[in-house]
Amino acid sequence: MSNKQQYLHFTLGPVQGFVAQARRTRDFWAGSFLLSWLTAHAMKAVQDAGGTILMPSVKEDDMLKILKGEAVEEPPRTGSLPNNFIAKLPDEFGGKIAVDAVQKAWKSLAEKVWEKDELKAAGVSKELWDSQIKFFWDMAWVISDSDNAAVLAQRKNWRSYMPPESLGDKCTMMGEWQELSGADRPSPTQQDKFWQQLKPYNTMDLRKNERLCAIAYVKRRFVHVWESLDGHTGWELPTSVPSTSYMAAVHWLKKLIQKNPSSEEVLALCNAADSGERLTRIQAISKALGKSPAEHLKKLADIDGRALFDSDKTEDTKLVDAKKALLKTLPDFNTPLSPFYAILMMDGDSLGETKAAMGDATGLSEALADFTSRVPKIVRENNGFLVYAGGDDVLAILPLEDAMGCALACRKAYMQIFADKKVEQGKYSISAAIEYAHMKLPLTMILKDAHKLLDDVAKDATGRDALACRVWKPGGEQQTWAMPWGEAIEGDEVKLANLATQLGKSEEGKPGYASKLLYHIRETLEMLQGGGDIHSQAIEDMLVADYVSSGLLDGQDNKLKVAQDLIKPLLNQCRVFENKVDIESYSANGALLLRFLAQKGVER
Q1: Of the candidates 428, 430, 431, which has an alpha carbon nearest to the alpha carbon of residue 363?
Q2: What is the pTM of this model?
Q3: Which of 32, 129, 366, 443 is exposed most, by the fewest CB atoms within 10 A?
Q4: In angstroms, rounded to a whole number, what is the distance separating the alpha carbons of residues 270 and 362?
Q5: Is a pLDDT exceeding 50 seen at residue 290?
């Protein structure tokens, strides 16, 4: 028997195929949660065989504790484990035991869904169902005498994953897989008839226009069988997740609840809509409701977010009328309702360098586990819904107003953890990407772009330790803005968010930035082609002069100083950085993002 140390490197995928292919935030959350749960099964199998998980640190992970039969204070509702891990192994041990554990858990969950929804009686082909369930996961593993993660990357390059051929009409969520009616060339009438007889048809779980494959169907329905799995009794999961429309409306809804509208109009609105946001636990809404909320206000807090936005569909006339009737009783309620929400994605920078600075993988693993444990509270306090927090990764959905503050709070926690461990400054950092998206845009598209924004803009172009933001309107991609964290923040605030607050003051008759001035700044910067050979002070003087002569500061004392105090910090946030270096050029995207944040995307 050999005494040579060996390590298992394991990864579970496809991540993008399972998590990012999502029609709703619920699919987004479900994919992330299940990926974490399946990884936990692989980890448990390794531990049961005498292995030790080195990376990530799992000593305090509640998901893994439950699978091992240990007590936890509260069962997790969010994924906390990455889709890969490194384990130290005893002799004569292979990675197949981890693969088998994943497949066994996944098959067990799928069988529970199959049985509960009586899919055999509904006409679903068991052969089609089993083939999709069996051949979905792409797992790779390698045994090495090193704990260097690079060995797994080499193994993944073999490309051994071959999904089965998929015929017929495709799934509306996961477009490369066949939907469950199974016909090669289904007629619309036959297809509709098939889906109408399924139990969840025309509910919040399965709407009329959705046709799902087995994998997507399990993602939608697994919460209803979750507690029937072995060892899962009492592990309650939400049957609904806040929608993008609900997240966009959080602060508007909070203010509406605080107005305490009459029950008659509220109930009329709620009866015309779906109650699809139960158990969302958004902090701003909970605080607005108070400890003993009236029943009609609780119903209002549970309303389907889509009901709060006007629709051009004739069948929604009753809903529109009910909303108008409610607002008519509150003539002083003039808060604009924004259709934009935010996705926050964060990722640690250069972890290999951080690991080297700390001396070993254990210290890094424990630091990242500490960060993971802090993120849920931070996201909750910023009125967000946490999709995933594991290691150095964060994925959350937030109201537009709270995204920058949440990103900054997560970054502060990350930096403090490594500072407390006396890691050399400059050897650790975390970058963030914020997508501000219109609620009607495809969620899958926004999620895919968030990865690009984080990797290509915040990390590669700006040089890591950076914040990047992008706005998506129905017409497509708008402005993209990025800044190193050190340049983007001042104290406990993101400078651009603070400037947006100042812009809002102009509507109250106080000095601020007017929309037409911001557009003029854009025209000026574009005319100068980003600054070129013109000195930055000359550009600032030109913009200040424009502001003073605009008439927007008429009646103010010392107009020149007021203009300088507003233009200087704005221009500062229009600078362009490449690989952390200020290239002495300007972009109007900072000014346009400022306008968007101040107006919350609502043109007025």
Answers
A1: 428
A2: 0.91
A3: 366
A4: 52
A5: yes
